[in-house]
Design a protein that fits this description.
single chain; mainly alpha; 3 helices
Amino acid sequence: MKTLKLLARSIRENRRDAVFSILYVALEVVCECIIPFVMAKLIDSSGVDWSSLLLYGAILIALATAALLFGILSGKACARAGAGFAANLR
């Protein structure tokens, strides 16, 4: 327990990046979990209406782009937090 407290104190100024990393990963997972539901809705829609096809396609592209963006931001925040934590630990 004493070691855990020592490690927790070493994160200091990198706490913001650590919290944002967790937040970005959670948002990425939410976006990626919504995609199958949108695909199911697209498949279940009756008939081939081009306007609904384009709408669902745009929604899928937006969700995939958002998931990609959150993944990139998570990687950057995690790298900054990890490097700062390691520097403070030394």
